[in-house]
Amino acid sequence: MLTSEDTMRLGLASTAVLATCLATSAFSADLPSRQAPPPPIVYAPVFTWAGFYVGLNAGVGWGGSRDVIVTGPTAGSSGILSGGGGDGAFVGGGQIGYNWQSGAWVYGLETDIQYVGSSGDVSWGQYTWWAGRGGGDGGYFGTVRARVGYAIDRTLIYITGGLAYGGLNSNPLTGNTTSNTGWTIGGGVEYAFTNNWTVKLEGLYVDTGEGRRNRFFENPAGGVLPAGTYTATTNGGGNGGIVRVGVNYKF
For residue 64, which of 40, 31, 86 has the smallest C-alpha distance? Predict the structure, then answer.
């Protein structure tokens, strides 16, 4: 049977044990933890359209049909014939530019230079002379444009416009090349499939004013027209539209 003295001793012992446990727990809490810290949270980089870019493009162009003045070796072999259009001509070149971005709005400047093939032909009666058979095949044009667009994440919808210039190549024997300046306007859509690479579809209307193109060809003997050298001069042809696809690398 426990006496009051035994009960007191038991209570003191229990109190001492409890105090020791509490002190040990507090001391352990102050010690550095051996558990590894949680890994840092890595956020995916936010895509931006801002910065320099450079790229290549290719497409097709078209223009209105134009009358062609033909000068032949005799007075009776000269005249005016129809044709000489540039529908379906190859267009290809490169571009470089810079974009600024404010929120979803993107502002930029771009310049490009393009080679233009010639798909038109001219015909007189039963004869057809292709542009590629004589001097004057092809030409070039370039633009310096502003771009304003609205970005939906990695998709950019934009309008563009500015200065256009171009030249029509003549027969190398004459050294005659006419260059003109004008304007251009258009628009497109561009998509960034990585943080650095984008692809675009773009349409432009280009007007560089009046131009002059000479083509030279030989008519075989025995035809409807006298044999000899003919010069086909195209006035105009400095305006038309293009549709092209392009790829850009963004730095």
Answer: 86
